[in-house]
Write a structure and sequence with these properties.
It contains 5 helices and 8 strands. It is of the alpha/beta class. Strand 2, helix 5 and strand 3 (about 155-160) form a beta-alpha-beta unit.
Amino acid sequence: MRDFSSLLPGYATAHDRRVASVTFWSQEIDQAIADLRDLTNPDKTPARFLPFLAYEASVDFWDEEWLEDVKRKAVRLSYTIHRFKGTVHAIETALSIISVEAKLLEWWQPGGSGVPGTFEVTAYPSGKVYSSHDYLAARLQKRIWDAVNLAKPLSRHFTFKLGIKAVTKLTVGMAVSDLSRTRIMPPLTTKLENEMPLGIGAASSSGERVQIRPWRPEAIKSTGLCWAAAMIRPVRSSIYIYPRQT
């Protein structure tokens, strides 16, 4: 450790040298405190220190095989879970650590069990927690169970089932044809809307047909979007409203 007192001139007093030494040490201490602040920050600390922070933050459930960002999230959200423990918010927060969306159904709600003090959890894994993409892995199911069990009220019992949500986006490179037909029987509707967006790389046209007999609704709205590079076949939509006029 370097002592700033050695930089003082020869005529400096002993007091001056002591002050210079203390000043140097205070700078070292300030830097150590700054470093310690980063070490206790779950977003900045090196990954090897995360298990120690998890112990300090009383993280209820932990898996060394989690991805690093999942571990950091577990430490960061531990305070919120303990603050609201025993509530739906605590359960949802705990499940969000492992990227799980949850639907909770209380016993008194429509479709509930009807047994006082019980609830049902449907969990939908929606993110990557382990290096693999196996959403139905037994280890993930175990962590979901732990998250709910450790965040719920001690007096409550629950059943658990796993669900899968799939979101897909369809892109068409070449359109062929699409026919949509809607028939409305009496009583006659007062408002009818038909919207058909279409985005394709090479497609054709957009057409529709509306027949109203013998009454006419107050409002009919039909919109369609089409981007075509080359025409192939029309995309048609037909709507019939009965009864027909003789």
